[in-house]
Amino acid sequence: MAAYYNEIDPYAAQWLRNLISAGHIAAGDVDERSIEDVTPDDLRNYTQCHFFAGIGVWSYALRRAGWKDDKPVWTGSCPCQPFSAAGQGGGFDDERHLWPHFHYLIEQCRPPVVFGEQVASKDGLGWFDLVQADLEGANYAATAIDICAAGVGAPHIRQRLYWMAYSKCKQCEKCLSGCRESDCEEGGGEAVKPSGLCLPSGMAYASSVDDNKCNNSSNVIGWKNDAKQTRLGSCDNNAAPTNGFWRDADWLSCRDGKWRPVEPSTFPLANGITARVGRLRAYGNAICAEVAETFIGSYMAAQEQK
């Protein structure tokens, strides 16, 4: 079955269609309606559902983590503006607080696993308190981890709260929707006892670098242009000055005389670049693929250990 993408920004929605056509994310349908207008019946025939889809990074990260396109999962990074320092501080009263609508669809359709992300501010943690309570009330076990992009080798911070929930009903692991605790009892199934999620301790150390031999804690942003400078963050003398997923970073020379790393093929968002504002908005709202991949992979590893 196809994937479902919900994204109200027309520019990002077209970007999603382009990525689907190019085969970079799971094949599926893009719905530009607000999540407030989506009903459970709209989602019955989809294996994967991605809300607030942006440019499809959750689907991309799932693939990179080894999660197959035909394996059920939902994702959703609810709007952060109500709980972000960059927003207006409206919190739960902000009209962009859309978790109640996402929660309703989860409760009605019962996806076996849900991944999400939110800002890691004090308000963001308060938001997750509500999310966790709602999910546990719907018979899901939920957990979260506060992690930055530098935790997987990036030369920048981007601190975020990554969370996930999974159904405590074993039967729900075999279906996407319509399965509740009572259904399991009637069908001879057995409810899974709450056990929490055991994330491997290596979450913050995704690269293969031996941290006892290398210093990975240095801030590499703003390095001077010095070809002889010691390459921190890696034992490999042939590696770039960043580690992990950003080993092949492109380095841009800036007018202040410093060089700064960017992900390969990102393209500078300088004035005059075609569709610069749309790209900037889409990139800015996107989650960090490498962090999401590591988070998903940790969950998959924990499941294999059971």
Give a quick rundown of the structure.
With 306 residues, this protein is an alpha/beta fold. Helices cover 27% and strands 16% of the residues.
Please outline the major beta sheet: 7 strands, mixed
Gross geometry: globular
User: What's the helix count?
Assistant: 7
Order of helices and strands: EHEEHEHEHEEHEEEHH
Beta-strand residue fraction:
15-25%
**Low-confidence parts:** 171-241
Assign the CATH topology: Rossmann fold
CATH superfamily: Vaccinia Virus protein VP39
Give structural attributes:
single chain, about 300 residues, alpha/beta, Rossmann fold, seven-stranded mixed sheet, three-stranded antiparallel sheet, 10 strands, globular
Give the topology:
Blueprint lengths: L2 E4 L3 H13 L5 E4 L16 E4 L5 H9 L7 E4 L22 H11 L3 E7 L2 H16 L2 E8 L12 E8 L13 H6 L36 E2 L25 E4 L4 E5 L13 H10 L3 H17 L1
Parallel strand pairs: 1-2, 1-3, 3-4, 4-5
Antiparallel strand pairs: 5-7, 6-7, 8-10, 9-10
Describe the overall structure.
This protein is of the alpha/beta class and 306 residues long. It has one domain: Rossmann fold. Helices cover 27% and strands 16% of the residues. The longest helix has 17 residues.
